[in-house]
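Summary for the funding panel

The consortium committed to producing paired sequence-structure records for every protein in the target list. Below we show the first two records in order, beginning with the earlier of the two.
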Amino acid sequence: MVGFLAFIFVFGLLVTVHELGHLIFAKRAGIMCPEFAIGMGPKIFSYKKNETLYTIRLLPVGGYVMMAGSGMEENPLKQGMQVDVKRNDEGEVTHIILDDQHQFQQIEQLEVIDSDFDDAMFIEGVNQYTNEQERLNIAETAYFVREGDLIQIAPPSKQFRTKKPWPKFLTLFAGPFFNFLLTLVLCIIIAFIVGSPTNTVGEVAKDSPALSAGLKQGDTIVQLNDEKIDSFRDIKSYLQNNGDKSISVTVERNGKKETMQLKPDKVEVKVSKTKTQTSYQIGFMPKKTFSLTDPFIDGFNETMRYATLIFTLLIELFTSIFTGGFSFDMLNGPVGIYKFTDSVAQQGFLPLLGLAAMLSVNIGIMNLIPIPALDGGRILFVLYEAIFRRPVNKRVEMIIVGAGVVFMFFVMIMVTWNDISRYFLK
């Protein structure tokens, strides 16, 4: 149960922040957003504010902001469909009723022949009461009525496709950017809670170079070879650049300076099937301090470390496709993330926040991959429009996006099945 709640918390946080970025910048650009959804599948909760319906859906496998004119929405009217419509005093359609869950009166029934909700804004059909063919204009403020909800029909001026490239770019980029911001905020929060490491020794590890050299608790490292040390970051940076060469360590102990020699240990951690991360350690835990400024620096550095690691692994993933080393074991879907979240949640809340921070930057980077179904692919269309002063042909764009959706669906199915086989069918 703890693992499930932890997964819902992490999933909800990451998806909500990502989609909130899209929503905020879409609204700033004047783009109408009929729905903001967390999850996929059947709706289990909804709340309407202004023109946006906020929903929580059953399946925790994603989320979306439905932006008018973005290509995500589909015209619900098909030729031959019978719908009810309500008109205003000017004869314009104010409501297109798609089910019988309503209490509207003075409505008319049409058998649909044609409709356009992008440019011409009309519905054409045969009036079932007069048996006459009519072409009705859509009012400036009009709605689809479905499952008791009013879904506003966006006029052309409030559609994504009519906006200039820069607002489009910001709207699309905002989702990944908010994930990067979330990682930074979580890393700063963690740094505030656990404190910032200093260049003072808090604990010396057993069987370590530090213990052998005589380093003691309370010692403050002030110099490594000829380089002055002011912080724990200075120590890490120097050790990484120096490698496993012997170094002279100068410490302050009881008001006096002492110098000792030691050789750092080389520590290798496997972060993927083919990549190993190397660090150099002398074997001590730093004393922590609590301040108002250091957590911001530590949080930023940790965010950059996560981003660098994820980006490196992503490059390795794409390289493996062409070198023949690719395996679906290199990917994790919702099932794999659930299992990993479950194991981390057993360690406590802080490790869970750390996992959320890493997954957030991962979602941000992954969404910027130029695959048509992702934000990165849609940004490519916007860049094309900015360079050539015209949008991509709508039919071509739909074909490319459709192919991207099919590809992503195939990958998701394969990854999910691989996760199920790996964790439950052994």
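The next record, for a separate protein in the list, is shown here:
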Amino acid sequence: MKFRIASLAIATTLLSGCMTTKLVPPPSDFVGNLPDEYKAKLNTLNDQPSTPFRGGVQTFQFDEAASLLTVVYRLPNPRWYWNIRKSEAEKDVFPYVCEQFGGVIDHGLGVRYWYVGNAGFTTDVVTTEICAQIEQSKDS
């Protein structure tokens, strides 16, 4: 009986520890200066539950000190791998980021995507300059 209770306590502790473990995004040199009102709104993204994404999950991690939002795409299985390259992902996702977050990016937010898993990578940080380049290429 004591063994069962001890085993149950250990299992509960281990499982609760696994549930609270968050991935630590790769380091970035980006440092923005986002106003506090935007930081408060973006901080709520850290508490959002993960959502399904192409067989994996999507979560958000906002770093208030750097004003950097990392959109995390994680594969569910270590044997799976990303069949996409960084340049392809940036070409597809950067215009969307500029469209959706353009106003906040203009105020100092940086946005990047982190594809976690085999053949994973982190995109460059989308900034005002990148959005301006994308807009210029549309006009050309």
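Regarding this second record: The helical segments are 2-20, 36-43, 86-106, 128-139. The radius of gyration is 19 Å.
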